[in-house]
TrEMBL record:
Keywords: Membrane, Transmembrane, Transmembrane helix. The chain crosses the membrane at residues 12-35, 55-74, 94-115, 146-169. It comes from the Eukaryota. This is Uncharacterized protein. It comes from Dictyocaulus viviparus (Bovine lungworm). The keyword Transmembrane applies.
Length: 193
Protein backbone atom coordinates (compact mmCIF):
# COMPACT_ATOMS: atom_id res chain seq x y z
CA UNK A 1 0.00 0.00 0.00
CA UNK A 2 1.16 3.53 -0.75
CA UNK A 3 2.23 5.80 2.07
CA UNK A 4 0.57 9.11 2.73
CA UNK A 5 3.29 11.07 0.97
CA UNK A 6 2.51 9.19 -2.25
CA UNK A 7 -1.12 10.29 -1.97
CA UNK A 8 -0.57 13.88 -0.85
CA UNK A 9 2.23 14.88 -3.21
CA UNK A 10 0.12 14.63 -6.41
CA UNK A 11 -2.82 16.23 -4.61
CA UNK A 12 -0.67 19.21 -3.61
CA UNK A 13 0.70 19.57 -7.13
CA UNK A 14 -2.84 19.40 -8.52
CA UNK A 15 -3.98 21.97 -5.97
CA UNK A 16 -1.25 24.38 -7.01
CA UNK A 17 -2.16 23.97 -10.69
CA UNK A 18 -5.86 24.49 -9.91
CA UNK A 19 -5.04 27.63 -7.91
CA UNK A 20 -2.99 29.05 -10.79
CA UNK A 21 -5.75 28.20 -13.28
CA UNK A 22 -8.42 29.78 -11.06
CA UNK A 23 -6.31 32.94 -10.77
CA UNK A 24 -6.01 33.11 -14.56
CA UNK A 25 -9.74 32.55 -15.04
CA UNK A 26 -10.51 35.16 -12.39
CA UNK A 27 -8.40 37.66 -14.32
CA UNK A 28 -10.28 36.65 -17.46
CA UNK A 29 -13.74 37.11 -15.92
CA UNK A 30 -13.02 40.31 -14.04
CA UNK A 31 -11.59 42.14 -17.01
CA UNK A 32 -11.77 45.79 -18.07
CA UNK A 33 -15.43 45.53 -19.07
CA UNK A 34 -16.65 44.03 -15.79
CA UNK A 35 -14.46 46.17 -13.54
CA UNK A 36 -15.64 49.38 -15.25
CA UNK A 37 -19.29 48.27 -14.94
CA UNK A 38 -19.81 48.12 -18.70
CA UNK A 39 -21.47 44.68 -18.74
CA UNK A 40 -25.13 45.27 -17.93
CA UNK A 41 -28.63 44.65 -19.23
CA UNK A 42 -30.67 47.13 -21.21
CA UNK A 43 -33.02 48.98 -20.47
CA UNK A 44 -32.85 48.44 -16.69
CA UNK A 45 -29.01 48.83 -16.54
CA UNK A 46 -28.59 45.92 -14.10
CA UNK A 47 -24.99 44.72 -13.67
CA UNK A 48 -24.67 41.02 -14.40
CA UNK A 49 -21.27 40.49 -12.75
CA UNK A 50 -20.54 42.64 -9.72
CA UNK A 51 -16.96 43.97 -9.68
CA UNK A 52 -16.88 43.81 -5.86
CA UNK A 53 -16.93 40.01 -5.99
CA UNK A 54 -13.52 39.95 -7.67
CA UNK A 55 -11.90 40.34 -4.25
CA UNK A 56 -13.34 37.00 -3.09
CA UNK A 57 -12.01 35.19 -6.15
CA UNK A 58 -8.54 36.76 -6.10
CA UNK A 59 -8.03 36.26 -2.36
CA UNK A 60 -9.22 32.65 -2.48
CA UNK A 61 -6.91 31.80 -5.38
CA UNK A 62 -3.94 33.42 -3.67
CA UNK A 63 -4.66 31.78 -0.31
CA UNK A 64 -5.02 28.33 -1.87
CA UNK A 65 -1.84 28.70 -3.89
CA UNK A 66 0.13 30.10 -0.94
CA UNK A 67 -0.86 27.26 1.40
CA UNK A 68 -0.06 24.63 -1.21
CA UNK A 69 3.21 26.26 -2.20
CA UNK A 70 4.39 26.58 1.41
CA UNK A 71 3.39 22.97 2.03
CA UNK A 72 5.44 21.80 -0.94
CA UNK A 73 8.40 23.96 0.10
CA UNK A 74 8.27 22.79 3.72
CA UNK A 75 8.54 19.15 2.71
CA UNK A 76 11.77 19.89 0.81
CA UNK A 77 13.26 22.31 3.33
CA UNK A 78 16.65 22.09 4.97
CA UNK A 79 17.22 19.82 7.91
CA UNK A 80 17.35 22.70 10.41
CA UNK A 81 13.91 23.93 9.41
CA UNK A 82 12.48 20.41 9.41
CA UNK A 83 13.88 19.83 12.90
CA UNK A 84 12.33 23.09 14.09
CA UNK A 85 8.95 22.09 12.64
CA UNK A 86 9.18 18.60 14.13
CA UNK A 87 9.96 20.10 17.55
CA UNK A 88 6.90 22.35 17.25
CA UNK A 89 4.75 19.92 15.28
CA UNK A 90 1.54 20.57 17.21
CA UNK A 91 1.69 24.29 16.48
CA UNK A 92 2.53 23.83 12.81
CA UNK A 93 -0.03 21.09 12.28
CA UNK A 94 -2.68 23.25 13.97
CA UNK A 95 -1.79 26.23 11.75
CA UNK A 96 -1.74 24.03 8.66
CA UNK A 97 -5.11 22.50 9.53
CA UNK A 98 -6.71 25.88 10.22
CA UNK A 99 -5.33 27.38 6.99
CA UNK A 100 -6.53 24.39 4.96
CA UNK A 101 -9.97 24.60 6.57
CA UNK A 102 -10.27 28.32 5.85
CA UNK A 103 -9.12 27.82 2.27
CA UNK A 104 -11.57 24.96 1.81
CA UNK A 105 -14.45 27.12 3.04
CA UNK A 106 -13.37 30.02 0.83
CA UNK A 107 -13.22 27.73 -2.21
CA UNK A 108 -16.70 26.44 -1.41
CA UNK A 109 -18.05 29.98 -1.12
CA UNK A 110 -16.41 31.02 -4.40
CA UNK A 111 -17.96 27.96 -6.05
CA UNK A 112 -21.35 29.18 -4.86
CA UNK A 113 -20.67 32.72 -6.14
CA UNK A 114 -19.46 31.47 -9.53
CA UNK A 115 -22.53 29.25 -9.97
CA UNK A 116 -24.81 32.08 -8.92
CA UNK A 117 -23.20 34.53 -11.36
CA UNK A 118 -23.17 31.99 -14.20
CA UNK A 119 -26.87 31.39 -13.61
CA UNK A 120 -27.50 35.13 -13.92
CA UNK A 121 -25.33 35.45 -17.03
CA UNK A 122 -26.62 32.19 -18.55
CA UNK A 123 -30.06 33.69 -19.11
CA UNK A 124 -28.50 35.98 -21.71
CA UNK A 125 -25.94 33.53 -23.15
CA UNK A 126 -28.38 31.96 -25.61
CA UNK A 127 -30.97 33.58 -27.91
CA UNK A 128 -30.63 37.16 -26.72
CA UNK A 129 -30.29 40.41 -28.61
CA UNK A 130 -28.13 42.13 -29.71
CA UNK A 131 -25.83 39.41 -31.01
CA UNK A 132 -22.62 40.84 -29.48
CA UNK A 133 -24.29 40.89 -26.05
CA UNK A 134 -25.21 37.21 -26.48
CA UNK A 135 -21.62 36.38 -27.47
CA UNK A 136 -20.21 38.28 -24.50
CA UNK A 137 -22.69 36.57 -22.17
CA UNK A 138 -21.75 33.17 -23.53
CA UNK A 139 -18.05 34.01 -23.07
CA UNK A 140 -18.56 34.96 -19.40
CA UNK A 141 -20.93 32.02 -18.85
CA UNK A 142 -18.30 29.46 -19.94
CA UNK A 143 -15.59 31.03 -17.79
CA UNK A 144 -17.80 31.29 -14.72
CA UNK A 145 -18.75 27.62 -15.03
CA UNK A 146 -15.07 26.72 -15.36
CA UNK A 147 -14.31 28.78 -12.24
CA UNK A 148 -17.04 26.92 -10.35
CA UNK A 149 -15.52 23.59 -11.38
CA UNK A 150 -11.99 24.67 -10.42
CA UNK A 151 -13.00 26.05 -7.02
CA UNK A 152 -15.07 22.96 -6.22
CA UNK A 153 -12.11 20.74 -7.23
CA UNK A 154 -9.83 22.77 -4.95
CA UNK A 155 -12.29 22.46 -2.08
CA UNK A 156 -12.64 18.69 -2.55
CA UNK A 157 -8.87 18.18 -2.78
CA UNK A 158 -8.33 20.22 0.37
CA UNK A 159 -10.96 18.14 2.17
CA UNK A 160 -9.07 15.02 1.09
CA UNK A 161 -5.83 16.45 2.48
CA UNK A 162 -7.58 17.34 5.74
CA UNK A 163 -9.06 13.84 5.95
CA UNK A 164 -5.80 12.08 5.24
CA UNK A 165 -3.58 14.24 7.43
CA UNK A 166 -5.78 15.21 10.37
CA UNK A 167 -8.72 12.83 10.66
CA UNK A 168 -6.72 9.68 11.28
CA UNK A 169 -6.68 8.11 7.85
CA UNK A 170 -3.05 7.03 8.11
CA UNK A 171 -2.26 10.13 10.15
CA UNK A 172 1.13 11.73 9.54
CA UNK A 173 1.80 13.68 12.71
CA UNK A 174 3.50 11.91 15.59
CA UNK A 175 1.85 13.88 18.43
CA UNK A 176 -1.62 12.98 17.18
CA UNK A 177 -1.22 9.35 16.20
CA UNK A 178 2.02 8.21 17.87
CA UNK A 179 2.80 6.53 14.55
CA UNK A 180 6.48 6.06 15.36
CA UNK A 181 5.61 3.73 18.26
CA UNK A 182 3.82 1.26 15.99
CA UNK A 183 6.10 -1.42 14.64
CA UNK A 184 4.35 -1.82 11.28
CA UNK A 185 4.31 1.88 10.37
CA UNK A 186 7.33 3.62 8.89
CA UNK A 187 7.29 7.38 9.47
CA UNK A 188 8.73 9.38 6.58
CA UNK A 189 10.60 12.56 7.45
CA UNK A 190 8.55 14.68 5.07
CA UNK A 191 6.34 17.15 6.84
CA UNK A 192 3.12 17.91 5.01
CA UNK A 193 3.33 15.89 1.81
Amino acid sequence: MFGVSYILMPINYTLSLCAIASMCLTCSVFDFIVMNEMYYTVPDLRLLILPELSLWFYVTSVVCFTITFITLLASNARKGFRTFVENHSQLFSLLHGICLSVSCILCGYCTFLAIQMSDTVGKYAFNSTPKHFEEASHWYFIRLRALAILFSAESILQMIVLSVVYLGIECRYQPFSKASQKSDVVVDNRLFV
